[in-house]
Design goal:
By secondary structure, this protein is mainly alpha-helical. It has one domain (2-431). The protein contains 18 helices and no strands. Helix 14 (282-302) crosses helix 16. The longest helix is centred in the last third of the chain and has 33 residues, at 346-378.
Length: 438
């Protein structure tokens, strides 16, 4: 009876966690039509996450210390948190610091919750959740690609104004991206269709693989095309290296999808992803030059305080926004201000805002993740698990976005921490006393 009650508690926490991640996966919507940054679906999700982690700590307090000692990632996570925290010493704007600090804390909270929940909740629950969320995101993305004007008109009165400004700007540039990271679904679909699912189920899943390929190309976002290619190649590598599966079927599907997508898009648009990749338009060259300019500016800012940086969130304290004053269109002006607030690379931002100490801590954490993943993929020490490998590929697919773009909010990086937590939790579960359930 007691065991069932505990299981029900964990199940309730799992569902609450799932709803919170869903809200964070979607763009921020105003609650009750209140135009305030403190009354959005993202704020609600963050409050729920804090409540969940406190409840889990209370429930697991007797085993938590032992688990922290057993998890090698703990020391690297602590270093990352500590170096982020001490950057307040060189902060100009404390407000900007805490705006970004809460994103750091929430990323760690998501990571911890994932580790703790997967000890009690079978991984198949998380798999079903990821598939539902992923397919839903693909459908959502498809609606925006097919009906961009109607889609934005519908969202205008509900969406947080800064997010609407971003979508509005993209549409004026013939770019279609909701920043839902739909490409993370790709490894789950490819590995599952080739290793676990019955042949009848594979057709539906392969259809979504094709649809994601089309959306990545149609979006006119170079990063999305790179993410799709990476996720596909990494998934195929796992099929060959780990599962010893033939890649003929999935290769044919990929070839057909890419060919048809390219022909359809090329014949119906005057400007597509190929034009963006070869930078045939001057605006595409300008975006590259802009990134180099922000990188150079960020490195010059580092000289102010090399060890601890200029403080979390304080990159924008050193940016001159006066040049946006002459932009008449409200949404274009908002987008320009938001764009100038960030150096457009997670590495450059961490180096600038948390200094050399923060950068070393972050690189050490990433190196731990990478080393652990390579050991699992190249030299499998655990039972082969398509779910685990899919989480690994999906997490790095998300991180690829952060190399070339802003990656400083849980809307953008929340699912990276979620997937990394699942990986750590599953490994801990399989290598310790917990019985791993398929």
């Amino acid at each position: 009876m007691k065991k069932n009650r505990v299981d029900n508690i964990y199940l309730s926490l799992f569902y609450s966690f799932g709803v919170s991640l869903l809200l964070l996966r979607l763009p921020p919507f105003d609650i009750f039509s209140l135009s305030s940054k403190f009354a959005t679906t993202h704020v609600l999700a963050k409050i729920v996450l804090v409540c969940i982690v406190f409840l889990l700590i209370l429930i697991e307090r007797s085993r938590l210390t032992k688990m922290i000692v057993q998890l090698p990632v703990s020391i690297f996570l602590l270093m990352y948190f500590f170096t982020s925290s001490i950057s307040i010493l060189s902060t100009i704007s404390v407000q900007y610091f805490f705006q970004q600090y809460q994103n750091v804390i929430l990323g760690i909270i998501i990571f911890i919750i994932s580790i703790l929940l997967v000890q009690k909740i079978p991984p198949r629950f998380f798999l079903v959740y990821i598939l539902i969320m992923g397919i839903g995101a693909v459908i959502f993305d498809s609606l925006f690609a097919i009906f961009p004007t109607e889609f934005l008109d519908f969202l205008k009165s509900h969406l947080q104004v800064e997010m609407y400004a971003l979508y509005y700007f993209n549409k004026t540039q013939n770019k279609f991206n909701l920043y839902l990271h739909t490409e993370i679904l790709l490894p789950f679909l490819i590995l599952l269709t080739q290793t676990q699912l019955k042949k009848n189920s594979r057709i539906i899943f392969l259809f979504f693989v094709g649809l994601m390929g089309y959306l990545a190309l149609f979006s006119n976002f170079r990063t999305r095309a790179i993410q799709f290619i990476f996720a596909y190649v990494a998934s195929v590598f796992c099929l060959m290296k780990v599962f010893k599966k033939s890649i003929v079927g999935i290769s044919i599907v990929a070839l057909i999808v890419v060919s048809l997508s390219f022909l359809v898009i090329r014949s119906n648009t005057s400007f597509d992803i190929v034009d963006r990749l070869i930078m045939s338009d001057e605006s595409d060259v300008e975006t590259i030059n802009y990134r180099f300019d922000t990188f150079a500016h960020a490195f010059s800012m580092l000289q102010i305080n090399p060890l601890s940086g200029v403080g979390l969130g304080n990159y924008k304290s050193y940016i001159n926004l006066s040049k946006t004053a002459g932009i008449a269109d409200r949404f274009m002006r908002l987008h320009t201000e938001e764009t100038n607030d960030n150096p457009h690379s997670v590495f450059v931002q961490i180096l600038t805002e948390t200094g050399v100490l923060g950068f070393i801590a972050f690189i050490a954490l990433l190196f731990y993740f990478l080393k652990s993943d390579m050991k699992l993929i190249l030299y499998p020490i655990l039972k082969k698990d398509a779910f685990l490998y899919s989480c690994i590929i999906a997490s790095w697919t998300i991180f690829l976005y952060g190399i070339f773009n802003p990656f400083n909010s849980v809307f953008l990086n929340g699912w990276f921490w979620f997937l990394r937590g699942l990986i750590e939790g599953v490994i801990h579960k399989k290598t310790n006393t917990y019985e791993y359930q398929k």
